[in-house]
Amino acid sequence: MLKKRKKQILVHLSLAVLIMLVAQLGFFSIPPSKNNYAGKPSAGQLLVLWRQAGEPYFNSPQAVCFKQGKALSSLCQNMAVARILATRKNISLPYINSFYHYSVRF
C-alpha cells in the first residue's frame, strides 16, 4: 500500500514538473521567403525556446515589429530574428504555418 502511494506521488510530481516546463516554452515562427534573413531562400523554420516575461506562446518577426510599433519592414524583421538567434538557445523544427498565423493574430 505504501509503495502504491509513493508511486502516485512520484507520478503527480512528474506531471507538475512537466506542466511547468511546457508552460515556459514558446514558439518563434520564421516564415518561408524568397530572400530570407541571411539573404538566401528559406523554407522557413519554427524555433522552440524559453519564453521571456510577457512574451506570447506564439511569436514571429512580424509580430515583434508590430508590437514594438515599427513598420513591417524587412530590416525590422531581420533584427528581430538576429536578436532571437544571438541571445536565446533554441531547438529548430520544420516550419508550421498555423503557428505563424497564431503569432500574427493581434
What does this structure look like?
This protein has 106 residues and is of the alpha+beta class. It has one domain (27-103). Helix content is 48%, strand content 18%. The protein has helices at residues 2-24, 61-67, 74-87, 97-103, and strands at 25-30, 45-50, 58-59, 90-94. It has a four-stranded mixed sheet with strand order 3-1-2-4. The radius of gyration is 18 Å and the shape is elongated. The mean pLDDT is 83.
Main features:
single chain, 106 residues, alpha+beta, 4-stranded mixed sheet, 4 strands
SSE layout and pairing:
Elements: H1 2-24, E1 25-30, E2 45-50, E3 58-59, H2 61-67, H3 74-87, E4 90-94, H4 97-103
Parallel strand pairs: 1-3
Antiparallel strand pairs: 1-2, 2-4
Helix pairs in contact: 2-3
Gist of the model:
Helix content is 48%, strand content 18%. The chain is α+β, with helices and mostly antiparallel strands.
Poorly predicted residue ranges: none
Secondary structure category: alpha+beta
Order of helix and strand elements from N to C terminus = HEEEHHEH
- Strand order, largest beta sheet: 3-1-2-4
Tally of individual helices: 4
DSSP strand count:
4
C-alpha Rg (nearest Å): 18 Å
Distance between the termini: 52 Å
Task: Give the biggest beta sheet.
Answer: 4 strands, mixed
Oligomer: single chain
Helix content: 40-55%
Rounded mean pLDDT score: 83
